[in-house]
Amino acid sequence: MAVGVAAEVKNKLAVVDVVGESVTLKKAGTTYKGLCPFHGEKTPSFVVTPQRETWHCFGCGLGGDIFSFVMQRDGVTFPEALRTLAQEKLVEVYPRRGIFVTSVEVRDLASLSEVRGLLESAAARLAAERATREERREATTLISELDGNAGEHDERRLIDLDQRIHRHIYRCAHNPFLEETLNEYYVLTLRIWFLALDRVARLDEAVGEHRDLMEAIRDGDGPRAEETMRRHIQGFEQAIRQVL
Ligand SMILES: [Zn+2]
Ligand SMILES: [Zn+2]
Fold first, then answer.
1. Cα 49 to middle of ligand 1, angstroms
2. Confidence check: pLDDT of 95 > 50
3. 14 lies in which domain range?
4. Distance in Å, CA 199 to ligand 1 centroid
5. Beta-ladder partners of 28
6. Burial of 135 (0-12, 13-18, 19+ CB in 10 A)
């Protein structure tokens, strides 16, 4: 896996949080100290420096960044450490309201896309029919953001915008149960997306589809919203399937 996801992990996760899961850390000025998990010791010589996002043990000399910590801790290679962090941690950061955590595998993609295809296209239709004036205005704002982002290939911004667009649609459907369910599926899809992020090359297409979706909501065009969403979910599944 590539730089994109690695940068994303570094951006979103703090080394002190990840280390803190397995090492008891005590704040000491601008750093944190604890007993080194990699060699036996009774006085703490293991130091985490949040400003630099690094860790170092003055006893055994080991040290590095968030990835090298997981590699040491779990005895894994870089790609495996990256996968662990991206799959298990990063997605928990994304859903800002911290919905819940369910494990998902690539083989779940077909079932997940199937149910999203059904429910989310229905939600898109409802959203187009039910959105309030304020929500239609928000759709217009999202359209200008999409236009402003055209040609941009920053994965983090893309995911952020994708998330906001889909969640806006869920909200506009005005059915709290549907909204909650779709948020749940979105988070699961995000996990799979992270596994393929750097190899999925349909960003421009997706932007066009999002624009269509937001226009349909803005204009109250239910059938167009439904059909566009169906295509959008299918296209996404195919794109991911091709690279996994
Ligand atoms: Zn040590
Ligand atoms: Zn999307």
1. 15
2. no
3. 3-93
4. 37
5. 31
6. middle
